[in-house]
Amino acid sequence: MSEKDFDLRLVGIISKPHGIKGEVILNIITDYPSTILPGLILLLRDSDRDSLEIEQIKNPDFSVRKSAIVKFKEINNRNDAESLRGSRLYRKDIELPDTNEEIFWIDDLIGCIIENPEGVVLAKVLEVLQGIANDSLLVEKLSDNIKISGVKGKQFYIPLTEEYIKSIDSKLRKIIINKIPEYI
Length: 184
Fold this sequence. Notes:
By secondary structure, the chain is mainly beta. It has helices at 78-82, 106-109; strands at 8-18, 23-28, 41-44, 51-58, 67-72, 88-92, 113-115, 121-129, 136-141, 155-159, 165-169, 174-177.
């Protein structure tokens, strides 16, 4: 299989070192945290390293918190761990469970355009923020002519709920909303 036969899926972001033996705090972003196990090789895009292999995971109860303490085989001191701060870790999408048409990966939403029911393009998704009650899309207006009550800048949030989201087509990179949130 050639390198072009797969896409990378974001698994998590290293927030900071933990201790002096090379451990880091890994903020988990994947929809399948239970697949993050010792022996898993994660890929890096913007680093001197190409990959890291998970040696050990502490506190892997991802239902309570969206982070864990991770030790990589290649990282053995705090300085090396510090050099990874902010690194995004990926895995090949061919290593993930299959999805059906109604299910999408969170990182598939980033970059999608937001349209109203009439087909008017309003915004573009910058980030998906995972919350306790529901997830929200951080979006940026594509035109200054779009007026949203209570929003002064170009960015605003759209709750990822049926009240606001009519449909999501991750293949066409398009999200149709039912209504725009109003902010006080």
